[in-house]
Batch of 2 targets.
Target 1
Amino acid sequence: MTVSFALSPEQQQLKENVRAFARGVLAPLMEEVRAERDPRSRAALMRPAVETAVAAGMLRGLIPEPFGGTGSSGVDAAIFIEEIAVESPDFFITMAGPLIALAPVYEVGTPEQIERFVTPFLASTGAPVAAMAFSEPDGSANFGAPAPADGVLTTAVPDGDEWVISGRKAWSSLLPGWDGDGPDVMTIVCRTPGGVSLIVAEREHLAGRIEVEEYYDLPGLTGCMTCRVRLNEVRVPRSHLIGEEGDGVRLTLNAFMASGASIGTFATAAARKAWEVAYDFARTQKRGGAAPIIEHQAVSDVLADTKGRIEAMRLLGWRALDAVISQDPAAGELALHSKIFGSETGLEVVNDLIKIVGVTAYDVNFPLLRHLDDALAYPIIEGSNTGVRRRQLHDIMVAEDFDPLSASGLA
Ligand SMILES: Cc1cc2nc3c(=O)[nH]c(=O)nc-3n(C[C@H](O)[C@H](O)[C@H](O)COP(=O)(O)OP(=O)(O)OC[C@H]3O[C@@H](n4cnc5c(N)ncnc54)[C@H](O)[C@@H]3O)c2cc1C
């Protein structure tokens, strides 16, 4: 038996198709996004590209096959994410809300909930969006902490056949939807009488009840619409509770597993693009010397070392996404390594490449610094490495039955 790392003909085709879309549609779009100063207008520029991707079936590719989509393989997902994120991680984050927001619905949703909440994302027209409303302005790393900690502050109070949800949420992409009336589906992490719980609200519940307090102006990932919102007594049917009351911490952590694994692939994309820019510079620029700077051992050592780290990050991302999608028992540990190792290595790689290009890299119009701005986000988004992810890894490693070889399949 062999382990093959070669792409199948179908995966080759996937790579070609997504790369063509990324180069043809996303690269010019990002020029426009970079030129726009207003964060809300920047994010709005993404919408036509989302519509194009939806029409091409890309959104259905994010929905697992058992739920009506075409997503089936973790390695396919990694190829897709890397090719998109090389040109625009902003675009993937904008489109990929369902990846997190629907994960609890897949895990414990009733057939009625699955039908109702997943169907909008099987569309082949429009630009449906989902938001996982987890983060709050006063913090999210300790969202499940018991009293006297505050934990999650958003509340859902039962009132007859409805939940009445109030509180403030932040950061999650497209919290107000494209037009301020909310995304098609918003999965809200909130406190109910039974503990931390998840409740889904739809546009019809959110319209007029969601108020944007601020659109954040991000240094990287500038096409993402991230803001702080207030939910004012959003009324949702009691049947929109996902799973049991009090199961929200476990379901939320599970929901962020695939997205955590994918951060390693995002970091790979930033590092790959930065490497290409630095390599081209090193081969063509003499900087007043007699030969291109790649001829200096110090420069080529950095190129070689960073290339090796990129190869390692990519394979770990593939392995982690494969484990998550195939529900391998080691998926949790691998997803955390991809998130932590991938994000921190990606950041170091881009920083090292900036150092060999030198002062030219310090011009925002030279296409290198922008990848540092994106890479800076990866250790802190999708659960910061310090506040969330390393704590999760700690829990895995202190468990009595932890076997260090099981993540490698060698236990
Ligand atoms: C582009 C983008 C997209 C995003 N998408 C989403 C989304 O879809 N949904 C969503 O809900 N959020 C989203 N976020 C927000 C983000 O992913 C989370 O809010 C963030 O990962 C949590 O940050 P934090 O851990 O730093 O939390 P905070 O609670 O703000 O903690 C701040 C810091 O305090 C320290 N700290 C706190 N508690 C501990 C502890 N117990 N142990 C050790 N250190 C601690 C850590 O250093 C931590 O980083 C997004 C953010 C961005 C920028």
Note: The CA atoms of residues 31 and 87 lie 10 Å apart.
Target 2
Amino acid sequence: MGDEEGLGAHDLQDIEIIMEDKEGLVCGEHSDMQDKHVDMELGEPTQDPISWPQNGEITLEWIVNLMETFKWASWNKSLSEFASIMPHFVVEELITKASHILCQEPNCVKIQCDNNTEVVVIGDLRGQYLDLLGIWESVGLPSDKQLFVFNGNYIDRGKSSLELFLVLLAWKVFLPHRIYLLRGNHESSDISEICGFLKEVNRKFPEHGQTVYRKCLEVFAELPLASIIADCVYTTHGGLFRSEGITSSQSFGEKEIQDDHGNKSGRKKQKITTTLCLGSLDELHQVSRFVQDLSAKDAILTDVLWSDPTTESGLTENNRGDAGLLWGPDCTEAFLEHSKLKVIIRSHEGPDSIACQKGLKNMLEGYSTDHEVESGKLHTLFSAPDYPQHTSKDYKSKGAYAILKPPNFDTPEFVSFEARKRHEAEIKTISFAQQSDSAATSSGADIAFRASGIATSPSWIISLADDVGTPAQISEASKVEGSPLPSDLQCRNLTSPITSTS
Ligand SMILES: [Mn+2]
């Protein structure tokens, strides 16, 4: 393995997990962790197929082997060999075990923290498994001193969605109160089917792809929707959400929003409907979240996973993906004030979707501060750097994570980081030339994706990670992606400049 070329075997050698707190949550959850001092190194895996632990209990050693096997395989194995290192029945066992925990969590998990604990919040990861390892390398793994909250969108776009999600599930099973996995809008049947995850699973499990995919959809629907950390920070994938009944005594914010609307924003009156007012955490708590297909549009469920903040006051329907809401600073203030919270950390918007909206922030550092109001702040956090990968659009963006520190936990410290260098074989892709937005929007396929709220169509790419050196069959794209081919196809290697054929 060429360590000098990127994330090498030695890169995680310095990470130590010290499990020494005899009274800590870790010990309470795992007797085998008690008094244990573990030096963790991610090195060469055993290269045997992963097997399910004999007594059914996941250990730290099992997770470390899983992590290093996936890293090793991402450089040394083809996609179609994946099932030989991670058998489908092990995947299914792991998901079943995680499901037992996740389905018992409430829609909005309340995370209490003591003064010895830091909380790390992480945004969209989008299948960029090596970048997740990079985060852990710099900040450390889940432990009795460090708790993680993930804001969803583990999958689609990056090539290792399955590995990334399975590793997170393994940690969830191992330390259920040290890692919280929230749902993103991509963790749904309607989006994961068209944006790459289904294709990835089918290529990794040529025989059992449908079974594994269905199993993933089941656990996606069990992921909780939001968290409240230390009674002061609300995190979720999209953001705020509507009240589903104006007569509900639990809804609030209607008056403030309407007044502000009429007086300041100049927005057309018909945009203001009497039924669109801000929902409360009580209402979020009551949502039936175990729904695989989010296009079914339970309003609160889709809002919380799809909504975006805006600089304009008020609460309006979002035109991005025909789902969710746009909410203004007045709504952020109303929500924080009513919920007695100080910070919102949401994700959902990366550099590509921001680039579609003129005049707004960029996400080139992986985070932004969107609203600063009397009661607190709203931030957007995106943790997939160099996004979207495998496309000709390159924003050279950084990813970021946020650290919340005791005793107050109310001032997130944002840390930006660059993408891990990927293996040369992975970068060799054939992509359809997408040299201009005008070319992209001329494609019916791209328009369809934009209508789904997907800023960058996935239909432009065929990854050659599993058959490097073999010419790709371009026509595979239309079958795989279910989209018509653009008329101006070009092949290129992303390591070389685009050859212009005008
Ligand atoms: Mn999203």
Note: Confidence is low (pLDDT under 50) at residues 1-40, 254-273, 427-447, 458-502.
